[in-house]
Amino acid sequence: MKPKFLTPAEAAEAAGVSVSLLYQLCDERRLAHYRVGGKGKRGKILIDPRDLERFLAEHRVDAR
Predict the structure, then answer these.
(1) 3-state secondary structure the chain
(2) Residue 2, pLDDT score
(3) Which of 6, 21, 24, 30 could cross-link to 10 by cystine, CB 3.0-4.6 Å?
(4) Beta bridge partners of 35
(5) Which of 10, 8, 58 lies closest to 33, judged by CA?
(6) Of 36, 53, 15, which Cα lies nearest the Cα of 24?
């Protein structure tokens, strides 16, 4: 079964962050993503849910 890719809005909602922060993470290449159709309004960013989960796990801060 093929994974369902998330749009930036869906990924931001799943992570509990703003869409603008999610775009920033993609722009800075801190969050793995697919860019289809080029940069800008004609392009589309798609995020694999597994990459989002991995990113969040890597940035977890444990309690003391």
Answers:
(1) CCCCCECHHHHHHHHCCCHHHHHHHHHCCCCCCEEECCCCCCCEEEECHHHHHHHHHHCCCCCC
(2) 67
(3) 6
(4) 45
(5) 8
(6) 15
CB of 14 closer than 8 Å to CB of 24: no
Inter-residue contact 48 to 32 (CB < 8 Å): yes
Q: Which residue type is seen at 60? A: R
Query: Dihedrals φ, ψ of 6, to 5°?
Result: -100, 145
**CA 4, CA 38: separation in Å to the nearest integer?**
20
Q: pLDDT by residue (tens digit) across 2-17?
A: 669 999 999 999 999 9
